[in-house]
Amino acid sequence: MPILKPYLAASAIALGALIPLAGFAQMAMEPGKAQAAQPASMTDGEIRKIDLEAGKVTIRHGEIKHMDMPGMTMVFTAKDKALLSNIKAGDKVKFMVVYEDGKIVVTDIQPAP
């Protein structure tokens, strides 16, 4: 048994060093949790396409800071289809997105000033 003690101690130290990394990896998989300290804010974008029936909107957007997401063009699901009724392709907008039930969801869209 005395021979195993150094190996058990080294294993415990190695495991203790790796456990915090597992928590970091979990946060990296969920963008909303990793950036919880930064308040959500409106993002500038341009409407590229609207699918009112499916409740989806394609937006070319700038950086979404509270989600640590770079600017790109992507399809979002609208939390409420009514958000899409007063916009059209080509409109410059400010919009709010949140991470909800595993999806990034648009919760507000307003014409850009």
Distance between the termini: 74 Å
Strand order of the largest sheet: 1-2-3-5-4
Can you tell me the number of structural domains? 2
Structure class: alpha+beta
Q: Unreliable segments (pLDDT under 50, ≥5 consecutive)?
A: 22-29
**CATH homology-level superfamily of the largest domain:** Copper binding periplasmic protein CusF
What is the CATH topology assignment of the largest domain? OB fold (Dihydrolipoamide Acetyltransferase, E2P)
Care to count the β-strands? 5
Order of helices and strands: HHEEEEE
Name given to the CATH architecture of the largest domain: Beta Barrel
- The CATH class of the largest domain is identified as Mainly Beta
Number of helices: 2
Mean pLDDT: 82
Gyration radius, in Å:
22 Å
Query: Proportion of β residues?
Result: 35-45%
Structure description:
By secondary structure, the protein is α+β, with helices and mostly antiparallel strands. The chain folds into two domains: 4-34; 43-111, Copper binding periplasmic protein CusF (OB fold (Dihydrolipoamide Acetyltransferase, E2P)). The chain has helices at 4-29, 31-34; strands at residues 43-51, 56-61, 72-78, 92-100, 103-111. It has a five-stranded mixed barrel with strand order 1-2-3-5-4.
Compile the SSE list and pairings.
Elements (H helix, E strand, L loop, with lengths): L3 H26 L1 H4 L8 E9 L4 E6 L10 E7 L13 E9 L2 E9 L2
Parallel strand pairs: 3-5
Antiparallel strand pairs: 1-2, 1-4, 2-3, 4-5
Keywords:
five-stranded mixed beta barrel; single chain; 113 residues; 27% helix; OB fold (Dihydrolipoamide Acetyltransferase, E2P)
